[in-house]
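Section 3.1: Structural characterization of target chains.
Under the original work plan, the team committed to producing a structural model for every single-chain target entering the pipeline before any wet-lab resources were allocated. The record below documents one such target. The sequence was received from the expression subgroup and is listed exactly as submitted; it comprises 725 residues.
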Amino acid sequence: MPVQLLKIIKGESETPLPSHLQKEDLKCLQEGCDYTNKYFQGTVVLSYPLTKLRDGTDFFKVVLQDLNNSCSRINSINILIYGKMAEDCAKVIRHGDTFVVAGFKLAKSPTAREDGRHGCDLEVSEEAGSAIYIYTKRSTSAASETASVSVAPKYVYTPLNHLKDGTVVNLYGIVKFFKPPYVSKGTDYCSVVTLVDPSNAKLTCTLFSGNLDSLPKIYKIGDIVRFHRIKIREYNGQMQGITSGGFASLTFDGSVGAPVVPRTSSKLYTFLDEEQKTIEELRAWAASNLSISGPTAKLSGVQPMLFFDLTCQLVGKARVDGSSFLLKVWDGTKCPYPTWKVPVEARDLEGEKGLLQQLRNLTVDILVYDNHVQLAKSLKIGSFLRIYSIHTKQASADNQDVSHVEFHLHGGTCYGRGIGVLPESNPDVKELKAFLESVDLADSQNMESMSSVELDGIFSNVTDLQSHLQRCQQLSVTVLTDHQDLNNTGLKTILNSTAPQQYRIRAKLRTFKPQKLHQCIKLYCSKCNSLKEVPNGDDFDLILQDAAATAPNPELRNTSWYDSVMWTTQDQKQRKIAIHFVKHDEMLQEPEETLLMIEGGTLKEVWKLSRRFKCVIPVRSTEDDLELLDLSAPFLLQGSVKYYGCKQCSTPKTIKSLSSLAAEQRPSWEPTEIAQVLGIVPLQYVFIMKFTLVDGTGALNAYLFDYMTCHGWNASSSPITSQME
């Protein structure tokens, strides 16, 4: 019989294998050899569903692991079974079974590079005279009968300090750090998890899957995970884990005394009683040896310049622009500071209007950026969230004495930034729901109206403003529709009054300057009150060309806080280029979190890098250190924005000063922080226009002033100021 079940009695097979068969090791298998009288033995670690080929032939795929070579780089092989044998095997095989294949053929594996298994596939069919023997402890009434009792396989779990390069292992670990799943550069979802265990070793795992639900459901630091069939690779002297074929995971709450209930989307998994003991032991060890309390806070406990995790309920959302999205959330407590209300059109705000009005003093606006926008759009109103690494910033609007707190979820995934959706069965959600239900909303509506700063909106962009003004010139009169509580005042009365005052006028727009939109944008220094023209790209290009004439100093490569690459261009100029990538915790970060310095680059190359990486600083070499270029050039580029420094007020420091930012626990690489450590007084982009208004009683010059923050144009313009003509 081609497929036979052999019973194990007291550790020995009840029926021995045919005497003519000789065992073959995995490492000795190679194409072109005759395996008619040979057999290969391994343990079933993965099996795929039974399928049919195009010609109707049954097909079944099994992955066997050679336990005798478990520490080898390649220790598993694909078994491809065809015809009646495929159907018979699919009925009886179980993970953990000992599987013997005899009389097989070898064919080159087309998936060896992707799955990390043996370079050949082992092919089995009844027509080829193959035979399969499956050792089982299950009770069977006949060799061809499917076992009626399912016995869970016995898995071996490897401590983190015993991991070896190239092996596929099972393991338990405690989550010390994680990044919630996010969309990778391709189509898969990705999650990064750093694990520890009582061996005091550490393992960082990068997990990919096309199915979001198949990634570990980790909600907080201290959770415990069980990984099956994770591949181990060595990189820069450290072991790292990556997903391999058949990867599976379970996640458990790491709190001592919490129910041992696995989180998984799979309906088929094994979890033995003895593993519950493992969970309890890991919980106890973590409680005694790890500081696993994350930076969690309630809104009532937030402070400016804080990074924290927030468990909350989503009550509203709205698109702000192409790179940012608004989430309105609450946790039942009130922020002790006035909070920023992001200006959006009422028609763009999703959520129950009555509830939003009722909770207006308890909700906060969180602005999420870049890679988080896609997920934010898909969130359902009413869902419970855990938002990781929210940044609170203190700011103030123009002509406002009171400052306010802004909530930002910056782009990228550094420091675990992300958004997780919590199920209602989560203990933290149950606790939050009970608390929200106890909140007296009537009291919240009686809170002082100044609990948040309502910032007036401005034109969505300056292009709209210019078009609006051009239309106004074609009309005899333009009416300013705001401030309906004020009566119209003639310009002559205004000209004869003492400033400052507020008026509403009805006047004709005679002229406005400048006529060209780009001429409205200037660079302003708040320290010396100087106003400068924005340099054009040609000036920057010439500065870069001049800096490229000096070759990078090779002695400044690869320091303790940055890694360097250097090459020579293949053109006639043989230009030398060096790029220095700033590290954090001695590791390079993802591109969207990376600050780099470039020497010898052209304008085109610098722009290309700024679109790929978070921050780009053009530099040149000196004998002892890297330094900034002339301050006529931008000292920093982020995306399409160039940041300039004031030549008069700045005292530039060497690039080594940046190492203090790189050493921070959570460097945000904000332009203002970079400028400060480099001794730069940053120039601010400002928008300035002059209007001449007439109404028959007089003429008035009015000036409009606005400025750009790191997140775009300020949401509140300065009032129009005037003078007599």
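Confidence is low (pLDDT under 50) at residues 139-152, 446-480, 715-725.
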